[in-house]
Give the backbone structure.
Amino acid sequence: MTAPLAFDLVLCLLLIGVGLAAVLARDLFAAIVLFIVYGLFVAIGWVRLDAVDVALAEAAIGAGLSGVLLLRAAGLLGQRSEAPAQPPHKRHFGSALPCAAIAAVLALLSLLLPDTIAGLRGPVGENLAATGVGNSVTAVLLDFRGYDTLLETVVLFAALVGVWSLTPDQLWGGRPGLKEHARIDGVLTSFGRLLPPVGLMIGVYLVWIGADAPGGAFQAGTVLASVWMLAIMAGLVDAPPVSRLRLRLAVAVGPLLFLAVASAGLFTGGFLVIPAAQAKTIILAIEAALTLSIAVTLALLVMGRPRRPA
Amino acid sequence: MTAPVLYGLCGAALVGIGLYGLVAGADLLRRILGFNVVGSGVFLYFGSLAARHPTLAVDPVPQAMIITGIVVALAGTALAVAIAIRLHDETATTRPPGNAENRDARDLR
């Protein structure tokens, strides 16, 4: 066995171990922390599979934002309930068996499939020049399969509408989350001052470089969202009321611009057809608008519904 | 055995583990966590198929679809968490409705 394969084997065993620990942990807080660790291991797995774009998305969104979301929820529920401590799972052998069976079938299929799958590498490589971008994943996301990304931004928007619609009537239009009380000289406040400039630069860099190297609107949007949330959690800025017009414009500008470009294509070639001559400019413009919308939407999704008046 | 096959097997195991968390989790947050483990298992399985080539780089189309999937999973998670919190506001529990312990907790209240 070669050294890289041995590394992969250890990583896979760690993934299974940490994943199992996260699902079975007695304490909810421990389960969520294990889940964050698990997400980082998955990201390393993506690097090993040579999928750096996915690794960035997994580390930022899968481990980072999902972890924050679950931790905030656990904190919010823990604060106000005097419920008895969570008992561990009742060990359900009845449900463990079908789960193991499904895993076994998937594993068997994975062994039966051929070792070489050509996939769509060829067509993507041949047509990459027409998109004006050098990163084939960005080309697929914004050009070849643009409708996926367009609908995805609509899904994010719909999820935000869904979260906001859970607001009780008297709080409608208020500010999400509870008022943050961070110590002025505490670690969180220092990080809240130190990290945003660095994070802003990394975010802008990730959009720009995403045209030719791993990166892009989703990864950059997540970095910007976390910077904003950090500043809010450190008490440096307050969460905006969800009825503010500028906020709603920021949420909508990305999908709207994308939709406008897609519809403009109807006059030149078809829905979502981007003219090859200006492809790079158009893709970068869409990416820039999407980054802003994704950053604001992701942060608002994690902050949840309004919990206090504006 | 090659690395993609190994990650495919790992993805299959993670789907099983996550499914168990999804059906057997004692409260809704744990079930949401299990749902996310299923998601990353499916993505790893799919991504390992995209890497099955001895010489060429990873197929970009599955990669793009996985990135889309990760974002959609987060949107679903955020909505599910918001619904769980609202359920907690209304009933002071995050146990799934219909659970026997859940009915006990409501009686105590």
Q: What stands out?
A: Chain A touches chain B through 94 residues (CB under 8 Å). Residues 217 and 287 of chain A are 5 Å apart (CA to CA). The first helix of chain A runs from residue 3 to 24. The first strand of chain A starts at residue 175 and ends at 176.
